[in-house]
Specification:
Elements (H helix, E strand, L loop, with lengths): L16 H8 L9 H15 L8 E5 L5 H6 L7 E6 L2 H7 L5 E4 L14 E7 L8 H11 E12 L4 H8 L31 H10 L3 E8 L9 H7 L8 E7 L4
Length: 254
């Protein structure tokens, strides 16, 4: 994850054989990074409030190796977090960090979960890997109860350095033109990004998919060179220019 975050292993149904093989490769990074995980967990903890009586059910969809859930666990104490992924290898690794894991896919039949079963969904750096993000958000909306929370994160196409790179005619960071190598931009690690969003596009897409955007925040990217990391943290104050977009959205009702 030196040049881009795959975050958690993508939960996507029946990708082309080459793409599925790519994501099943244990060498492909699945760790999402503590800075993003902590900021997202704080947003979710604030939305859920302290656990009282029946714990909230949180689905970590695209949980990957479970490292993000491990980072978030102290902030979500008392709530039940269930990891969901289609990658058997990812779920095997996730079991070392999570007590509950489920194999499931987002499209073509959906996940083996009941309608309205979840109080919240963590969707951490998954959407940029999906062939069909529309069907994926339909499935997330299905499993959320009315009023349920969606915490989504994804790399920002319009990150402050990408604006400068495009002006210079350089392919933006986070974008990939091949699954075999990086071409035309800084970095060397391929992680399988298929779609990228700006803050405006992500807001509009979520609204069109039936979600109400509550708030948007930014998170830093640990692949930024060390001399520029202070600037990257400062860019989080303006989410539309930050490295990573963090969105809190809700399913209407409740």
């Amino acid at each position: 994850m030196t040049t881009t975050h795959r975050g958690d292993a993508p939960t996507q149904s029946r990708p082309r054989p080459g793409l599925r093989d790519f994501y099943e490769n244990p060498a492909v990074p699945v760790a999402s990074g503590d800075a993003r995980s902590l900021r997202q967990a704080r947003m979710l903890a604030a939305a859920l409030g302290p656990a009282r009586g029946t714990p909230a059910t949180v689905l970590d969809i695209g949980c990957g190796d479970g490292s993000a859930a491990l980072t978030a666990a102290p902030l979500l104490s008392g709530h039940r977090v269930i990891g969901v992924d289609w990658s058997q290898d990812a779920l095997r690794r996730a079991r070392t960090h999570m007590s509950d894991v489920v194999r499931g896919e987002l499209t073509d039949g959906g996940m083996p979960l009941a309608d309205g079963c979840a109080d919240a969904v963590l969707f951490s750096e998954v959407i940029e890997h999906l062939v069909d993000p529309d069907a994926a958000l339909d499935e997330l909306r299905r499993v959320l109860r009315p009023g349920g929370h969606l915490m989504l994160s994804t790399p920002n196409l319009a990150a402050w350095y990408n604006r400068a790179l495009l002006l210079a005619g350089v392919q933006p960071v986070f974008s990939e033109v091949s699954l075999r190598g990086i071409h035309g931009r800084p970095g060397s690690e391929v992680v399988g990004h298929l779609r990228l969003y700006t803050a405006r596009a992500l807001r509009e897409f979520l609204a069109a998919s039936g979600f109400e955007v509550v708030t948007m925040a930014g998170a830093p990217f640990h692949g930024v060179p060390r001399p520029l990391r202070a600037l990257d943290r400062a860019a989080c104050l303006l989410p539309s220019a930050s490295s990573i977009l963090l969105v809190h959205a809700r399913k209407p009702g409740g």
